[in-house]
Structure formats: C-alpha cells, structure tokens
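RETRY 2/3 - previous attempt timed out on the joint model. Re-submitting the same 550-residue input unchanged.
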Amino acid sequence: MTKKSLLFLGPFILLNSAVILAALFKTIQVSLGYYPVIGLRHYTLAYFKTVLGDAAFQRTIGYSLYLALVATILALVLGLGMAFILLKASAKHPLLANFFKIPIALPHIIVALMMLQVLSQSGLISRLLYQVGVLQQIDQFPLLIHDKGGIGIICVFLYKEIPYVAVSTLAILKQLQLGYVQVAANLGASPRQIFGRVILPMVQPILATLFIILFCFTFTSFEVPFILGSPAQETIAVTAYNLLTQADLTVRPTAFALNFIMSLICLAVTLLVLGISARLPGGGRRHREKN
Amino acid sequence: MKRTSTLLLACFLVALPLVVLLLWTVATQWLYPALIPQQFGGKVLGQMLQEPNFWPAVLNSFVIALATTVVTLLIAMPACKVLASQHFISQQLLTFMIYLPFILPAIAIVTSTQILFIQWHLTGTFTGIILSHTYFTLPYAMQIILESYRKMGQGYALTAKSLGAKPWQILKTITWPLMAPGIATAAGLTFIVSLSQYLPTFFIGGGKIMTLPLILLPYANNGRFNLASAYSLVFLLVTMIGVLLLKQLIGGRHHGARN
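RETRY 2/3 succeeded.
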C-alpha cells in the first residue's frame, strides 16, 4: 500500500477504530469493575453475573430478542412482497411507487409519535371504530401502545423498514427480470430448480445483509421503545439508558456489562447469519454480486 | 389490477399517519371521538415559535447536520477512492469494516466513548457532537460513494493523467462531475441521518446543546401531540431545506453522465 493511499484511508480508519476500540476498551474495563472515579479498582466478574443471573435482566434481553426477531422477519417478508409488486407496478404508477418510499427518510421519533396518534386508545383507529359503532367506550379498544406485546413498537419498525427492504431488494429483482428465469425455464429447469438455483442465490445474500442490519438496529433501538414501550417490560436499550442517566455512578459497571452483552449478541447474530448465507446457494458470490 | 390495489393500500397506510400528524399541528381542539379536529388554528405553531429553545434547536440541528455532512464527505471520498481499487484487504473484511457501525449497538458505543470524549474535553462541544455523528453517518455515505467510484472506474482519471492533467484538474473536471449525483445522494442521506440522531447528541452534548430530536422526544413521550407534531413538521422542513440545498451546492445536474 502506497503512502498516498494510507493518507487517504487514514481519517476513516482513525475515526472508526478510535471510536470502536475506545468503546470496547472502556466497556470491558468498567464492566469488569475497574472504575477509579468511584473508587473501584478490583477486577471482578460480579457485574456480568448480576446481569446474566438476574431474572429482570434476562426478561429484558428475551423481550428485546422477541421484538427484534418479529419486526425483522415481518419486514423482510412483507418488504420482499412489496418489491415484487413494485417490480410490475412502478412503471405504471411512478408517483405511487415514490410516495411509498417516504417512510425511509422519516426519523424514528416522528414515526413513533405518528403511531401514538393512530394506534393509542384515543387514537384515530379507536375513534373510527367508535364512530361506526364497534366500540361503545374508549377503554374497549385494545391496548396497542405501552402494551406487553410491543405492537406499537413493531408497527413503527414495519412502517419504516418494509419500504427499505422493498427498495433494497428491487434492484436485485430487476436483474432477475432480465430473463434469467425465462432462460432457465427454456433450458428445461423445473420451478423448484428455478427457485433453488436462480432466484434464491440472487436474493438470499441481500436478504441476509438486510436481516443483520435490521436485527441489530431493532434489538438495540432506544427512541421507539422509550416512547411506545410498556412500563412493565423494558427493552435492553431503555434499561441501559435508564441506568446510565442515573446520578448514581455505582450502577455504571452493571450498565456497561449490559452494553457488552448486547454488543456480543449483535456480533454473534451477524456472524451466524453470514455463515448460514455463505453456505446457501449463491453465498460464495455475495461480494462480487453486491459490488 | 391486484398489484395496483395493493400498492394503493400500501400508500394509504403510509399516508394515513402523516395526515393525522399534520392535522395535530393545526388542531386547537380535537377531543375523542371526533375524526377531525373540532377547531383549527395556528395557536400551536405560535406557541412553538415562542419557546426559548425553538430557534437555537433549529439552528443547532441545521449547523450540526451540515457540518457532519461536510466532514463525512471529506473522510469518505478519499477513503472510497482507495478502497474502490484496492486489492490489499479482502472484500469481505472491507464490507465488515464499513458496516460495523450498523452492527454495534449505538447506545453501547455512545455511552462508552463518552468517557473518552470527556477526557479530551469534547463533551458539550459542537466538535464532539459532529465527530460522534460522523461515526454513525459514514457507513451510509461510504456505501453510496464506493458504488459511484466502482461504476466510474479508473479509466477516465488515468487517461486524463496520461494526458498531463494535474490531480486537482482531474477532480474538478472528471471525478466531481461524473460522481455528482452519487455524492449528492450520499450528502442528502448523511444530512437526514445526522439530523435524526438522539443518543450521541444527548450523551456527548451533555444536554448543553439543544437540537430538534432532544426537544421532540420528551414531548412525544409525554403525549403532547400538538407541540410534538408541530416540531415534527419543522423537523421535516429543515430536512427538506438541507437536502435541496446540498443538491444545489453539489450540482446534481447531469453532466452528460446519467445514472
């Protein structure tokens, strides 16, 4: 590598590695109990034991996993479905197709607010049901916001991510349309072969990439569950935020242990999905394909 | 037909919450179970404009997002130029490196680097906030710029170089015009992502520097639909102004090269 390319790459590598390595170093140090600001100087695994052994923390991690998996899988399935629809319909209705993409650019805080206005007990849907006579009283409307199932939270992610998945997979589907499917059929491939050898290899690498991006984001997202979450059931990022905004610094090692565990889960899921994707048909071509 | 109606339904579902949001900004009375507000007026907008934090938040948000966009482009463009044509690092490792900020939890990164930023006296400063935003916007920008560099290839620049063009001439007459649409897209996206950041502004800014998300989050959380909607509207306006301005500055016009 020449001096010039090092100079060009320098700022990127410097900023990224400074942030990531500093974060890693501090997280490990503090979560292992070295936090001189409040007089802690002895390394211990106690904070990790607290997080992993405590029922409340376990519930938080489990609940966040549930939300992230449901939101991500639904977004991928529905987004891919919308991509197939856009593939055929966007030429005829370019205006509608562009309108459909608007949520991608909307911030999560605003979308969370909008869901509050539509889905809450005094929200638009509840008003609509009251007007047509389905509801006689406001409290007959099911709790969709601040509920334990996290319906409101999942709706926010779907609102933003279905268009995102659709747009991201549409580019790949357009290549498919160029005739690979017809060519395969012409050469005598069965529908099963067409799916397994043409469609799946082309679509699965981008779906795997999207799964990783969406899962890691929803699993540790803060703003959405902070606004819409149930007070009885926190998500992992809200728990960390609540611990880290306390004036009491002694809870910080526990918070950092939680930070470390959620980072590890994200990395583990990433490696797992990449590993599965590489072993599926089309996996070896991931990077030539995308770039 | 079925496809068109599905697309129409999808667009309706996208539009409905947006319409409700807009109605809340001009509603002065909207009691349950009315479907549309009982009274309209500009009271909420006036109330928002009189808040002491309103103008500082708008200006801070705009300045931070614009500066983040400039810093992000300054870091991403040279890096992508090298990365697009390099063979030292495997493609897989490269992708992983660029996308790492998408994978690692923002709250973990922000709260642990906060300690470092405190030591460097960067907390509570614009520099600190802009640097932390840049970390989060880089993957978005690099993804697009890397793609633009790859599409353009090295041929044009090499030809110009062999004909005696100086590096800045190549940048001005070849690279920039050919890549302008990609750069404009990357800049717009960076602006949007920076504008909607809450966690890095909150933790690195230490509450000293007000931005729109910092005001919006508590209002949304407390169910103050009127004010929260009005701020959302301003938020979207600032986004649009920023994106259009960047497009104008960068010159999204097609100089013969279309993509």
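Chain A has a mean pLDDT of 88. Closing ticket.
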